[in-house]
Design brief:
With 365 residues, this protein is mainly β. It contains 1 helix and 29 strands. The strands form 7 sheets. It has a 5-stranded antiparallel sheet, with no helix packed on it. It has a 4-stranded antiparallel sheet with strand order 3-2-1-28, with no helix packed on it. A 4-stranded antiparallel sheet has the order 8-9-10-11, with no helix packed on it.
């Protein structure tokens, strides 16, 4: 039976593209699902959950799409500045970061901004939620990497870094994380919050994706995608993916192989078949589509995303060691509304929130 999935891409031309993928043939084909000109400036971020797709823009808005109803679901307004990063957590919440230094937590029930926090002095450049939902990482233009305890909503610890990081990501197992500064990837240990490995790319890095807990796919300011074994701190494979620089990458598993999706300034979205075995070989092309636009971001929508379950909140942890102990427990905690107490501790005066408008309009076919 063919898998159900859709490729979502944002562009400089303010348009969000959706392409349905047919996976029942040897060569995968795509058909246009939608093109939507919802933003008034270039699209800067995209994310997908099991039902919704969100796009963020330089126009300071987050647009929502209901992929099951095939409708525009509304717009979220809270940030003052470009939306720099978006990430769904399970089926319950969406987190957003912006040039205003805020991280906002949105409830998927009523699409309200539950809380916001002044996370960085400067822009939030990237954020990542731990697989357990208990922690989040963020980096910003204040040259800090911050860990947030989402159980009590407070900053767990702050690490000063010498330069501004552009990307931060948890590993799938949640036992380590990486931060990107220009062309360098630094690997951090969860317990000590110290760098345990580094690897340098040939060009400035634009996008990364964990393919499993040790292999990291890296794209930069050229047409090459490279694969790094973080445990060995070695490059294990590389291949030419596009004719111009690769702007964004994503991946998902299909049966016994990984599908790597790449998007480029050349307008193409490509899907690659890669077997994650001990000796990595260059992937083979599964299919491609030419959007004819200058692409900026990418997300893969799959309706079969694993749903997270709610459990009792964990005890308060304030140090890296205590956080490791909490994460080692078997309970999984989602970011429930009553658990998220994100506030700007430096400014006790609360800022009035603007809620997302739950408006449904048909998406242009």
């Amino acid at each position: 039976m063919a898998a159900v999935l859709e490729l979502i891409a944002g562009s400089y031309e303010q348009i969000a593209f959706g392409y349905r993928v047919k996976t029942d043939e040897k060569e995968w084909t795509t058909e246009a699902g939608f093109t939507h000109h919802a933003h008034t400036a270039s699209i800067s971020a995209a994310a997908a959950s099991e039902r919704f797709v969100a796009t963020g823009s330089k126009d300071e808005t987050i647009q929502l799409y209901d992929m099951k109803k095939r409708t525009e679901h509304g717009v979220l307004l809270h940030h003052d500045g470009t939306i720099t990063c978006l990430e769904f957590y399970g089926t319950s919440h969406l987190l957003s970061g912006g040039e205003d230094g805020l991280i906002c937590v949105w409830s998927r029930k009523k699409w309200e901004c539950l809380k916001s926090i002044k996370a960085h002095q400067g822009h939030v450049t990237s954020l990542s939620v731990h697989p357990s939902g208990k922690l989040a990482l963020s980096v910003g233009t204040d040259k800090t990497l911050r860990t947030w305890n989402l159980i009590n909503g407070r900053s767990a610890f702050i690490k000063n870094i010498k330069q501004n990081a552009s990307i931060v990501r948890w590993s799938p197992a949640g036992d380590k994380y990486v931060a990107v500064v220009k062309d360098k990837v630094s690997l951090y240990d969860l317990e000590t919050a110290s760098v345990i490995g580094t690897i340098t790319n040939a060009t400035r890095i634009s996008s990364i994706k964990f393919l499993n807990n040790s292999v990291l796919a890296i794209a930069g300011d050229d047409e090459i995608v490279r694969f790094c074994d973080l445990g060995k701190e070695e490059w294990v494979c590389e291949f030419k993916a596009h004719e111009t620089r690769v702007k964004a990458i994503d991946s998902f598993m299909m049966e016994d192989y990984c599908v790597l999706v790449t998007a480029s300034n050349d307008g193409f979205i490509k899907m690659w078949k890669l077997y994650l075995k001990e000796e990595l070989e260059s992937p083979t092309l599964l299919g491609e589509v030419n959007t004819t636009a200058r692409l900026t971001c990418l997300a893969v929508w799959k309706p079969s995303s694993v749903q997270q379950t709610a459990e009792e909140p964990a005890a308060e942890a304030t140090t890296a060691k205590e956080l490791v102990q909490e994460l080692s427990k078997t309970k999984r905690v989602r970011i429930a509304a009553e658990e998220v107490i994100l506030e700007d501790e430096s400014k006790p005066k609360k800022k009035k929130k603007k809620k997302g408008r739950a408006v449904e309009n048909k998406v242009e076919k």
